[in-house]
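Project outcomes to date are best conveyed with an example. Our students and postdoctoral researchers have been running inverse folding experiments weekly, and each run begins with a structure described purely in tokens. The record below, which covers 331 residues, was selected by the lab manager from last quarter's runs and is presented without edits.
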């Protein structure tokens, strides 16, 4: 089968389309014919050699996909050949087919088009885990989202709206209108030298119950300052840097929780639990199509390195998707 592999750790131009062995299923695994996938920051870092992943032979990036079930292992029970599914993986989605544990799959709802389905799992499950399972976000809460125009940021805004929470978004001014359309009640310039002050003003006297932090060093102080007493700051990315000076006195005084979290290193059982919780909490909204990833642009499979280059250029609001075959041939 054809797969986009990392031949040189130079970024998107280091990917090469090569033939790889067909995946085989065992145990609880499901074999899926991939119809769509999407770009994620971890894919870009891996292509640059900054996210090393053990792999037999050239590594195949790709953390999410949608497609049709071809076969299942002898212990698998959840899906049958012909079922349309979407899923989460540790890598390997930049390919024609993939085999993975059935616990990492969800039924692909008819309300989502192919490009949307393939761009759903990584962003929405990351955001759900950070906001709800770890941050405890609920109706009436205030949420602050850093890097709000990213795939995870957009998913966070949509989840907050569905839960009845209010959200303040931070992003570049050029992306403010698109982010506002996702339900943010206020959008602030993430590069403003007065961001900390502006965030505190936007949050009012109470502050935010949950802050989703993806930038890291440049915005962490502003995020801590915006949090309400007893608030939760969930750190899931370090786009701007890993080393920051933190006012520990502020954390003590407010009784804040600063929690770090990554999705990719979790076990299959842990990821399966996140998927079950997501379906129990937001399954109806998911099935109805109220939760759908905003798509910045869609590419064909043969153009996949160009899709990753768009992510590298920080051009996107929402997800950059890839479809197998010409775009018009996919539902």
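After processing, the design step wrote out the following sequence:
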């Amino acid at each position: 089968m054809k797969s986009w592999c990392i031949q040189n750790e130079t970024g998107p131009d280091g990917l090469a389309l090569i033939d790889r062995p067909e995946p085989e299923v065992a145990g609880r695994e499901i074999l899926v014919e991939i119809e769509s996938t999407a770009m994620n920051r971890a894919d870009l870092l891996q292509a640059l050699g900054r996210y090393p992943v053990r792999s037999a032979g050239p590594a195949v990036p790709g953390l999410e996909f949608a497609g049709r079930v071809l076969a299942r292992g002898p212990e698998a029970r959840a899906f049958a050949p012909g079922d349309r599914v979407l899923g989460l993986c540790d890598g390997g989605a930049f390919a024609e087919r993939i085999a993975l544990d059935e616990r990492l799959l969800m039924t692909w709802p008819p309300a989502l088009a192919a490009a949307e389905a393939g761009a759903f799992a990584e962003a929405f499950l990351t955001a759900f885990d950070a906001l709800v399972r770890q941050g405890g976000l609920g109706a009436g809460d205030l949420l602050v989202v850093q890097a709000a125009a990213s795939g995870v940021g957009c998913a966070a805004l949509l989840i907050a709206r569905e839960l009845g929470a209010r959200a303040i978004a931070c992003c570049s001014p050029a992306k403010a209108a698109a982010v506002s359309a996702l339900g943010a009640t206020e959008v602030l310039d993430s590069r403003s030298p007065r961001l900390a002050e502006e965030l505190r003003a936007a949050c009012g006297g109470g502050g935010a119950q949950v802050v989703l932090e993806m930038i890291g060093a440049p915005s962490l102080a502003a995020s801590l300052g915006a949090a309400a007493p007893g608030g939760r700051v969930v750190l899931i990315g370090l786009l701007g840097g890993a080393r920051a000076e933190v006012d520990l006195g502020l954390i003590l005084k407010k009784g804040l929780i600063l929690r770090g979290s990554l999705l990719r290193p979790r076990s299959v059982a842990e990821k399966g639990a996140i998927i079950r919780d997501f379906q129990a909490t937001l399954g109806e909204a998911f099935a109805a199509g109220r939760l759908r990833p905003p798509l910045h642009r869609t590419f064909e499979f043969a153009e996949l390195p160009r899709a990753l280059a768009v992510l590298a250029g920080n051009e996107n609001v929402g997800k950059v998707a890839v479809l197998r075959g010409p775009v018009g041939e996919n539902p």
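The chain is about 30% helix and 25% strand. The domain at 123-260 is CATH 3.40.50.720 (Rossmann fold). The training component of this project remains on track.
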